[in-house]
Amino acid sequence: MLHVAIGKSLGAFALNVAFDAPAGVTAVFGRSGSGKTSVVNAVAGLLQPDAGKIAVGDKVLYDRQCRINLRPQHRSVGYVFQDARLFPHMSVHRNLTYGGTHDMARVIDVLGLGDLLHRRPAGLSGGEKQRVALGRALMSAPQILAMDEPLAALDAPRKAEILPYIERLRDEVQIPILYVSHDVSEVARLATTLVILEAGQVVASGPVGTVLSRPDVVPLLGVRDAGAVIGMKVAGRLLDDGLTELTFSGGRILMPGNLGKLGQSVRLRIPAQDVILATEPPKGISALNVLSVTITALEQGRGPGVAVGLRAGTDQLLARVTRRSAGRMGLAVGQQVYAIIKATAVGPEDIGG
């Protein structure tokens, strides 16, 4: 477990954050200027806080009261930047061993680097370069992995290329991973824990599915990006229709494409703006997915919208309707309604392993 509780004055900007990051990916999310990179730099030892404490397990990295401030090279933090920062004159193999030689065969396997070892950075795609940068960071056997918007410079195809490798890294390397991002779809797909910053303060934190389904965080995410994340299992394939059947605590839904093998776990992000509500079971509609849900919260925004928290089984969903619709339907906490989700509403970028 990584523990962070720090304060830092940066001119007119004041950083004051506290959170815990367990093994897995803890996404540090927020608008530009919210303090995301400053937090990661403080953990890595590149920025000295004015107060507080940073520790991983029993190892204290920084403690103002005890006058502990380990140098970056003594913190066991592997850092991956936006640009890969590989040595252009070295092969991939030499770039990797520059970081160390810890468990090299496993790192190469997890990140799929076997076919790249004799190539140089100039001959690699953006996604391949970032995989090598990840490998180099892991070769030092870090206790913490820090990733500062590692996909920000990549186009959509390169992002799609590297995301499965980061998912595998999350699941197989049991250390805290701090992942800085301003992309909600990345966060929803990769994170196990989410910390949202605004103006240098933590405004929401916890398991990613819990935080993203909270109606009160919609203004922080943006109305177009807000949506719930639900873990599901592949229950079957409708081969003639090109659909995959997924099950979760709230029932079953159908999604287009081949989403995995029978019994495989998948993570689905369902955008709030693509969930339609009905007070009665709908009839004669084209949408394939209708779930019986209970309203858990109503949050009215500054504009014409209302964020509606929903419980489906033991999972949480999120919908966004207009204030007029909420009033006309008489929506209230505790009310049973029906959530309608179009199979085509969820894009490939919203589906993870």
From TrEMBL:
Alphabetical keyword list: ATP-binding, Cell inner membrane, Cell membrane, Membrane, Molybdenum, Nucleotide-binding, Translocase, Transport
GO terms assigned for molecular function: ABC-type transporter activity; ATP binding; ATP hydrolysis activity; molybdate ion transmembrane transporter activity
SUPFAM superfamilies the record matches: MOP-like, P-loop containing nucleoside triphosphate hydrolases
UniProt domain ABC transporter: residue ranges: 1-224
Gene Ontology CC annotation, any one: membrane
Domain Mop: 284-350
Top-rank taxon, per record: Bacteria
Classification via InterPro entries: AAA+_ATPase, ABC_transporter-like_ATP-bd, ABC_transporter-like_CS, Mo/tungstate-bd_C_term_dom, ModC_ABC_ATP-bd, Molybdenum_import_ModC, Mop_domain, P-loop_NTPase
PROSITE patterns (alphabetical): ABC_TRANSPORTER_1, ABC_TRANSPORTER_2, MOP
Pfam families attached to this UniProt entry: ABC_tran, TOBE
Name of this protein: Molybdate transport system ATP-binding protein
